[in-house]
């Protein structure tokens, strides 16, 4: 039994005076490739981190939701289920409350819960701390109330909680990653129909490592920039007469761009999405044929596209990627929505100490906050612990 599980179980008993009915976990994620493609019905390829949200939960039958977080501290927050309403909460409690709201709105008979939770997923680091929070609650209530919902359906309900209740217009990647990833694998997900394939991704077996460089620049997707990119993509799809940019094939990109004329911003957004979908397919092919080292340049191309075309990078992310590549990494890119958050670096295991030191020194020389650098190991998706 892990220390986090024991602490959360004990924390529940201390607050609510009895042992919980169960304890569940849901991880954060890194996205290997496929950025800003999910809300364009495209491809993504995340894998789960060992960092996770853990929740101890018991049912109630009196229409109350009681929430407590080890990190937020303070008193237990008590909410009435019939008073849950989109936009009514701008604290951390909006994520679990939004999931309960979404479950009930979909007709599932949830009558209340006591929750104590704790998360090791860094917040604002582009590693899906909010999805982990949503999915752990969804899975716990699914189990306790015997709803029998598959992972993809839980992910959809969590996305609805985030889009409508919290008010962040995000896609489906993060919740699906947290709900459906498998240890030692990356998840190749088609965001259109949510079909998925687990792709073996055992870096250690090949003498490789994947580092996360958390720039400590906090980001949030409820801010306007993410929504503006999404609206620009939808405009591009409408101008091109397709349901989503996913429908523009890679070999039809030049013709599509020509049809967009001089709408420079839409041209850049469309070019990123179409080339990024192609990059996901290339990475899948390379991993299937044992070419893990060869995905490095594809990751770096993806970063250039996010920086120059989609324009969601920032100086700290560019410095992390540029420094890593100049110091001998196999490839690097920002991961997640951008505007801060984290970069990932693919490297030979033997190069990790030198690369880490070089990145930290570059941040110090630029007078940036010291980044948090750690290894990402493909880990299990959401599950019941006890
Ligand atoms: C954030 C969103 F939540 C995802 O849905 C996805 O769009 C990602 O940014 C960019 O790829 O993590």
Automatic annotation (TrEMBL):
Name the UniProt record assigns to this protein: Galactokinase
Chemical reaction(s) catalysed: alpha-D-galactose + ATP = alpha-D-galactose 1-phosphate + ADP + H(+)
InterPro entries named in the record: Galactokinase (IPR000705), Galactokinase_bac (IPR022963), Galactokinase_CS (IPR019741), GalKase_N (IPR019539), GHMP_kinase_C_dom (IPR013750), GHMP_kinase_C_sf (IPR036554), GHMP_kinase_N_dom (IPR006204), GHMP_knse_ATP-bd_CS (IPR006203)
Lineage: Bacteria, Bacillati, Actinomycetota, Actinomycetes, Kitasatosporales
Biological role: Catalyzes the transfer of the gamma-phosphate of ATP to D-galactose to form alpha-D-galactose-1-phosphate (Gal-1-P).
Coiled-coil features, chain-numbered ranges: none
GO MF terms held by the record: galactokinase activity
EC number(s) on file: 2.7.1.6
Source taxon at top rank: Bacteria
């Amino acid at each position: 039994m892990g220390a986090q599980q024991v602490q959360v179980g004990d924390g529940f008993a201390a607050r609510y005076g009895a042992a919980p009915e169960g304890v569940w976990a849901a991880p954060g994620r890194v996205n290997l490739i496929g950025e800003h493609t999910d809300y364009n019905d495209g491809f993504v390829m995340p894998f789960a981190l060992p960092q996770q949200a853990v929740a101890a939960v018991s049912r109630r039958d009196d229409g109350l939701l009681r929430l407590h977080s080890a990190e937020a501290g303070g008193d237990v927050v008590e909410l009435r289920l019939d008073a849950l309403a989109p936009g009514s909460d701008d604290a951390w409690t909006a994520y679990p409350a939004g999931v309960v709201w979404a479950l009930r709105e979909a007709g599932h008979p949830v009558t209340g819960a006591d929750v104590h939770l704790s998360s090791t997923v860094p917040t604002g680091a582009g590693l899906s701390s909010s999805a982990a929070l949503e999915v752990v609650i969804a899975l716990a209530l699914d189990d306790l109330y015997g709803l029998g919902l598959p992972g993809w359906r839980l992910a959809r309900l969590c996305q609805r909680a985030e889009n409508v209740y919290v008010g962040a217009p995000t896609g489906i990647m993060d919740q699906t990653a947290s709900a459906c990833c498998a240890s030692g694998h990356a998840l190749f997900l088609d965001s259109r129909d949510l079909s998925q394939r687990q792709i073996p991704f055992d870096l250690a077996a090949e003498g490789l490592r994947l580092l996360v460089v958390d720039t400590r620049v906090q980001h949030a997707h409820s801010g306007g920039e993410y929504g503006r990119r999404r609206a620009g993509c939808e405009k591009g799809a409408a101008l091109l007469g397709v349901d989503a940019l996913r429908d523009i094939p890679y070999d039809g990109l030049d013709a599509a761009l020509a049809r967009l004329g001089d709408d420079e911003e839409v041209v850049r957004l469309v070019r990123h999405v179409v080339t990024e979908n192609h990059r996901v397919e290339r990475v899948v092919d390379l991993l299937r044929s044992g070419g893990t080292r060869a995905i490095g340049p594809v990751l770096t191309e993806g970063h250039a596209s996010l920086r120059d075309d989609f324009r969601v990078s920032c100086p700290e992310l560019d410095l992390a990627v540029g420094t890593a590549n100049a110091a001998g990494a196999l490839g690097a890119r920002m991961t997640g929505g951008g505007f801060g958050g984290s970069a990932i670096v693919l490297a030979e295991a033997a190069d990790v100490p030198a690369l880490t030191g070089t990145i930290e020194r570059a941040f110090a020389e630029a007078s940036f906050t010291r980044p948090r650098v750690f290894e990402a190991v493909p880990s299990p998706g959401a599950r019941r612990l006890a």
